[in-house]
């Protein structure tokens, strides 16, 4: 299952309903990366640019990379209006494993969220070793999705999705591939083998409409998968979530696992 096919048709929902990253995570990524002027960021699998948006206060020269043109269009719509005159943003339609910045352009930070699962990870990390700054940092991070979330309302929502789409987790028109080796193990086998793991908690409040929109932004519950049963799905989900709503809100306590990886013997001075 290709990444582009898995997320076909989800870009507008991702822009409107994707939760993005918390400010504490953005601050952690800023602290992990070396300084520079200009300070350079590559955001891999940028989607609608939510991670890049959170890091705009810290970086002024950015590449936003995605394999789907529709996602890049959403990123442009999110990021261009809020750029200052000090920012330079370039978007690139490319596979993460193929992307190369201009010769001599070396990022201080590379961010890679859940898209890491979909990549040829060793090949991607080999490509990064060609262009990341000598003291640059590669970060891989994700929180639990609704499919893997542990609270009662998330489990109820997942069961409704499974009632309509089947027990096996979907990935667009295909199915989610098995999870490979732990990401930390993959990073330690690369040039970026000095790895630190950090947990960043996050609390969210969801409405039922927000949950529906978020589900349509995912590969496992993309809107087109429901076909002519979309209205029935939304009604069933609304009914299933009603007992859990507190004043119309569905609380979630989640956490990001953040892996920061460097070449050996390269440590940022504290």
UniProtKB/TrEMBL annotation:
Q: Does the keyword rRNA processing apply?
A: no
Tell me the Gene Ontology biological-process terms attached to this UniProt entry: methylation
Recorded hits in InterPro entries, A to Z, give:
Diverse_substrate_MTase, SAM-dependent_MTases_sf
Looking at the keywords, is ATP-binding present? no
Key words, A-Z = Methyltransferase, Transferase
Q: Which GO terms describe its molecular function?
A: methyltransferase activity
Q: Which Pfam families match?
A: Methyltransf_23 (PF13489)
Give the highest taxon in the source lineage. Answer: Bacteria
* PANTHER family recorded: METHYLTRANSF_11 DOMAIN-CONTAINING PROTEIN, METHYLTRANSFERASE TYPE 11 DOMAIN-CONTAINING PROTEIN
This chain's protein is named: Class I SAM-dependent methyltransferase
User: Top-down, what is the taxonomic lineage of the species of origin?
Assistant: Bacteria, Bacillati, Actinomycetota, Actinomycetes, Kitasatosporales
């Amino acid at each position: 299952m290709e990444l582009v096919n898995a997320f076909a048709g989800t870009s507008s929902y991702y822009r409107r309903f994707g939760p993005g990253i918390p400010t504490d995570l953005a601050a952690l990524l800023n602290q992990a990366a070396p300084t520079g002027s200009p300070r350079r960021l590559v955001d891999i699998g940028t989607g609608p640019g939510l991670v890049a948006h959170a890091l705009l206060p810290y970086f002024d020269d950015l590449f936003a990379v995605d394999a789907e043109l529709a996602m890049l269009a959403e990123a442009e719509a999110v990021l261009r209006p809020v750029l200052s005159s000090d920012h330079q943003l370039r978007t690139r339609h490319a596979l993460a494993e193929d992307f190369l910045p201009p010769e001599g352009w070396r990022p201080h930070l590379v961010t890679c969220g859940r898209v890491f699962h979909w990549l040829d990870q060793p090949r991607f990390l080999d490509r990064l070793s060609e262009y990341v700054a000598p003291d640059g940092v590669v970060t891989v991070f994700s929180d639990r999705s609704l499919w893997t979330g542990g609270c009662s309302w998330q489990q109820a929502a997942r069961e409704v999705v499974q009632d309509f789409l089947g027990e096996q987790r979907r990935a667009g028109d295909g199915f989610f591939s098995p999870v490979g080796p732990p990401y930390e193990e993959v990073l330690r086998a690369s040039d970026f083998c000095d790895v630190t793991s950090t947990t960043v908690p996050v609390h969210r409040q969801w409405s039922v409409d927000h949950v529906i929109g978020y589900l349509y932004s995912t590969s496992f519950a993309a809107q087109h998968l429901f076909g002519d049963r979309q209205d029935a799905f939304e009604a069933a989900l609304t009914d299933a979530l009603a007992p859990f709503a507190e004043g119309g809100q569905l609380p979630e306590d989640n956490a990001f696992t953040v892996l920061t990886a460097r070449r050996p013997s390269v440590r940022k001075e504290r």
